[in-house]
Amino acid sequence: MFGFDLLIKKFKTYSLNRFTSNISEDETLNYWRARLFSLIMSLLVPLSFLLYLPSLLMCIKESLVFLAIVDTLAFIVMQLIFFNKKLNLKTSISLFLSTLFILGLVLIYYMGWSGPGLVYLLGISCFSAIIHSQKAGYITLFANITVFILLFFLSGFQLLDNSIVNKMTLDALVSISLNFVILNILIVASTISLINILQNKLFAEKEFREKLENLNERHLVARKKAEQSDSFNKLLLEAIPLPFFYKNLNGEYLLCNSAFEDFFDMNQSEIIGKKVFDIVPKNLAQLFEIKANEAISSNQIKIFETQVITKKGVKDVIVHKLALKADNSDFSGIIGVIIDISDIKKAEIEIRELNESLEQKVNDRTNELNNALIKIESANQKLKLLNESIRIEANNLALLNEKLAKSENELRIANQTKDKFLSIIAHDLRNPIGGMRNTAEAMMKYFQLMTKEDIEKLLNTLYTAANVTLELLDNLLNWARLQAGRIELNYELFSLNESINKVTKIFKSMAESKKIMLNVIIDKEYKFYYDKNSIETVLRNLLSNAVKFTPAGGLIEIGIHPDSKNRNVIVFVKDNGMGIKKENIDKIFKFDETITTLGSSGEIGTGLGLVLCREFVEKHGGRIWVDSEYEKGSTFQFSIPIQ
Q1: pLDDT in tens, 302-313
Q2: In the chain, at which end, N or C, are there fewer CB atoms within 10 A of the end residue's CB?
Q3: DSSP letter string over 67-110?
């Protein structure tokens, strides 16, 4: 027996570790279900080892082959459930209950209604609810009743072996059926009810335990905070550098800090439990008592200044007193703070004496300063007069410097203009006149040998040189008059169309000689106030350049288009001639950077025409510009405000 008990004990230990290791203790009901299942298994597994062979031999002896197979399968399943750790608890319980259910059905088949099969089916409902769940209990109950009714009808219609019924009467079968069904319902309902009660009790116990733990924890925290608060208050009190005290309504000191002890040169044993009359003289103690009563009656802080006699001598102090209330709103005592102002009082006296001394010195010094100020004021008046004369001289000097700078700038510009003017005369005027002289000299020497064609050619050369010279002289004279300020613009109402047509006729024959097409593009009459001579000079220069720099067979267009946004008219002269290099575009309208270029047939430019054009256009308040691409042509445009 001892060996069997030891074996059972080992199986119990194994079962508990096997079936409860993955259950948390927080899941109380599940834990106890697993524990119950482990105890059942710890009893059934050793029992199955002891009963398997005898039951198998009995089945073979009685020729119950099917029962022997079912018994063997049940034995194997039991060992699989117990020893296979890969199966989780839910699967193990399901296999266990299914095995018992099938075993019960087989026993009913072999032993009839009165055999142990009914006991198995009744027990399986209770086991399902206890060791699995309420839902499993109800499912098993439904399965038991269904199987029982099915067997009852099959037996009634004689579709099963009569050995199941065992020659029982119908009344007996009905009685057994009803008892079985009612007993099943009662067992399952009672079991589930007990489980619910147990579960509620366990949950209530768990909740109560958690609340108790929370209360304990809160109590410990509160106690710890109270201890910390007391400790903190003591530290805070000691940290206050001013004498602090607390006394009850009877006037007995209950608490004071180290600063209070040091102030009166007494220790706590001499202070605690004593009254103010025991510490200071009677008259001063009476004053303290009066102020304490005032603090209680007014429920406000009382501040007063007095002198206190201590062991260390007389001290000037400021006392703060406040009546302290308890939780029930009754006054429980007086708290007070003493501020030693002896050093401040002493410093005030010293400062007052020092102020009086300083005030006297300041008065003396003020008198000295007033006398000095009178002298300084007199000197300032003289200095102001001197500064004013210096300022006037400085202004005069600045004006002289400005005039000198202006004159210097005008002289520099005049010198530059003179140099440029002379260089143009020396270079641009010398070349055509020299060409005329050479041509005339050639005609004089070789006139008798020349043919008519040679003479016409030389005359044409003379005519061209004369035109260039005339154009250059005309531009030089106009430019010189502009620089000298002797040209005044005469604004009259003229037709810009007529001025363009007039100038175009002048260059018509020159253009035809080079086989250049000259087109005028004007869509309407443009009549407004402008200076006719200067604008026609601009048109002549622009058309002259266009004819010079346009090759034979080219096209020149001159026209007008309005600029209504800016109240201007814009005149344009467009050609498909030689164009202007990009680096020279910004130079062509500047006097100090004029560029002279040969025309398409070797014509000579003056280099001054575009400068003159810019000045005439700007005199009208307009502007002149060019859009050009080298070897593709240029478009010169200028704007004139409509006045």
Answers
A1: 888 888 877 777
A2: N
A3: HHHHHHHHHHHHHHHHH-TTS-HHHHHHHHHHHHHHHHHHHHHH
